[in-house]
Amino acid sequence: MQSSIKTSAVEALRCGCALVPVLAGGKLTAGGTAIDKVLGGALSNALTGGDLAAKAGSTLMLYGQPRGVARVVLVALGDQANVTEKAFTDAARAALRAAGTLASTDVVSLLHEAEVAGRDLDWKLHTQVVVGRELAYRFDQMKSKPESTPFKPESLHLLVPRAGSAAAERAVARATALANGTDLAKDLGNLPGNVCTPTYLADTARKIAREFKLKVQVLERKQMEALKMGSLLSVAQGSEQPPKLIVLQYQGGPARQAPVALVGKGITFDTGGISLKPGAEMDEMKFDMCGAASVLGTLRAVAEMKLPVNVVGVIPACENMPSGRATRPGDIVTSMSGQTIEILNTDAEGRLILCDALTYVERFKPAAVIDIATLTGACVIALGAHNSGLFSNNDALADALLSAGRRTGDRCWRMPLDEEYQEQLKSPFADMANIGGRMAGSVTAACFLSRFTKAYDWAHLDIAGTAWRSGANKGSSGRPVPLLTGYLIDRAGG
Ligand code: BES
Ligand code: MN
Ligand code: ZN
């Protein structure tokens, strides 16, 4: 689905389907009223007929004129005087979904004529493009022939007045770039572990680098040994797949400006290692590289937007497998930082690969470091599927991420990092253990990481509950690409 801005007069509009918002009390906006006039009062007749429920997201389809506006989807924005972000997003999704079942391929939307409390036109355009692309997303590449029905609308035109259309064009271009980055993250997440290996992630990084002229470097096992990344390598040693440390750099800002570093957990399959996971739902551990996927997706998005910021993405990528060469519970390893770790549970491997990557990023003198990881089942229990867990050693950085999350609808919720939790990581034999017991599992995981991030402002996003959906609609969500990209847009000055 292609999105674009259209500036033609409503009276002269020709399209397969127009999306028209209906406000509280069955009121139409200016554009809706104009279409109603052209169609001889068909819209107001339908509204008086009472077939459109007031609830946000209710829809009603009418036929217009084959040579003009051929169809209209009326969509309710709710019966409150103030349209909320959620009501608008729900309405946009419902309207586009309704349009998606029709035979027409070109859709014109007027939904953004409705006021949304606290949000501007830019946000409303952005939301529609992103929601449309979500509905259009399919993952068919592993099927011998595609069996899902494609999303019909080929183009989504957003109708705006000619004045201000340049800003609207930019909003649509940015939303499209974000959707492209999110789709990349989804594809990587959905690919199975036998395809999406550490090598595959490295090749994907090289492809993005080629297409968008970024700098890419892939460190091999030898180089990681030279850097003394004993913790990362201890996870990789049970696998036949060679580990990769992927470094992808985007320079959109002045060369001297300190970059934001994004560090993504890239476990391409997590069996648990010798501390083997139970069999049920283990297939979902192919999603254990969704942090890495979000780093690649975000870099693709900001590079396509040409955002004036510097970003360095660092991805420690390997598999967590049991084998004769795998780490045993009780083994002690030395991290790149020099700190020693007693590995009491080989299934707590994410923190073991991240800690060395977090030490490695010090060399970029980053303005801020954000790691993204499907780190703990405990975070899924704490926050479910709606909010990612946010941990940070810096309040301003945490607030910036919270705010970007609210704006993009890709929310996170701040969790504590108090000193007291650190005690759970005590080991009688090494500087620390890699697990902290049953209590506050997502907090002790973050505490473990905090021991490697003292040199800079740092935030950790635990995306174990948000990166993919389980059950009948199993699949990667592409999160938190919208949150990270939103944060970087804010850093770039909006
Ligand atoms: N990748 C998992 C975390 C995970 C589990 C995410 C289930 C989503 C759903 C991680 O590597 C892991 O296994 N964590 C352990 C840590 C524990 C051994 C301290 C966990 O959460 O059970
Ligand atoms: Mn694990
Ligand atoms: Zn894992």
What does this entry look like structurally?
- The chain has 14 helices and 21 strands.
- Helix 3 (85-100) crosses helix 4, helix 5 runs antiparallel to helix 9 (290-305) and helix 12 (395-408) crosses helix 14.
- It folds into two domains: 2-158, Leucine Aminopeptidase, subunit E, domain 1 (3-Layer(aba) Sandwich), CATH 3.40.220; 178-491, Aminopeptidase.
- The protein has 494 residues and is α/β, with parallel strands linked by helices.
- The chain has helices spanning 30-38, 42-49, 85-100, 121-136, 165-190, 198-212, 221-226, 230-236, 290-305, 350-360, 377-383, 395-408, 441-450, 481-491, and strands at 2-6, 17-23, 27-28, 59-63, 71-76, 106-109, 155-159, 215-219, 244-251, 260-264, 266-270, 310-320, 331-334, 340-343, 368-373, 388-392, 412-414, 432-433, 458-462, 468-469, 475-476.
- 35% of the residues lie in helices and 20% in strands.
- Strand 6, helix 4 (121-136) and strand 7 (155-159) form a beta-alpha-beta unit.
- The strands form four sheets. Strands 8, 9, 10, 11, 12, 15, 16, 17 and 19 form a nine-stranded mixed beta sheet that branches. Strands 1, 2, 3, 4, 5, 6 and 7 form a seven-stranded mixed beta sheet that branches.
- The structure holds ligand BES, manganese (II) ion and zinc ion (ZN).
- Residues 270, 272, 320, 347, 349 line the site of manganese (II) ion (MN).
